[in-house]
Queue: 2 jobs
Job 1
Amino acid sequence: MIDRFLYEKSTTHLECLIIPFVYSYVDGQDIYSYALLSEQGYTSILHQAENPAKLYSGEIEGIIAIAKQHLDTQITLAGSHYFRQRYTYDHNLIIIHQQVNKCFYDHYAPSKLVNIAAPKIFFNASDCIDWVKLGLQRNTNL
């Protein structure tokens, strides 16, 4: 069971967002794995894939390198900066998307790669981020 994804350590490569997490502990040392999100969403076999390389590392940098090397061997697109505007707030991943005069978001909880965003459209990224933060703060106070 994944304690939480380390969204703050995530990085993009090609069309994917590489998200490390602690897979296990051995002799007091963290063993890292990773999961992926794909710009293509559910049409890609890489979307929400957990460690398709089947390799692990004792360092975050090592697991990121493993993921990148594996992605380089896959048939993927170059990427369109889909994950460029991503933020972490209270261990949640928020990805902001802007198209012309509208803004919307994807929201991933700390321990599950399922988009839980509300179907809401905003006029700018700042309003979107503020709305998500307010919702997370409200849920924390319950």
Job 2
Amino acid sequence: MISDKISYNRAVHRIETANFAHKKGYYYSCASNLYFALFNYMQSVLGKTYTGKWKHIGIFKAFSRFSMERELFSERELKDIGKAYAGLYELRRQADYENSTYESYTIERLRYLSEFVAEILSHVNKS
């Protein structure tokens, strides 16, 4: 299922970094690394694109179509992945570009999203 091992290894390193950041209270770093863990995972499944690199907005659509065609994830799982990706995109945007603080529910949500993304990455071993 993995076409690009370098991107997969990046995804694994990013999830580990996100977990470390969360434990240390570095929630912005956690959010950014979770987002890129999922982004890199999708890159690893899709492989190289003809344009040379994947765009943040288009990658999930391509990943969803690719996964449905190959039955890598169920429709429900893809819907959940899409929601997580959109949520992480927003959290990363806030972390990188806004002058705001995360509320306690967002910090707890990051913990859940970390577990969710780690589960997605482990899916490679199930296919």
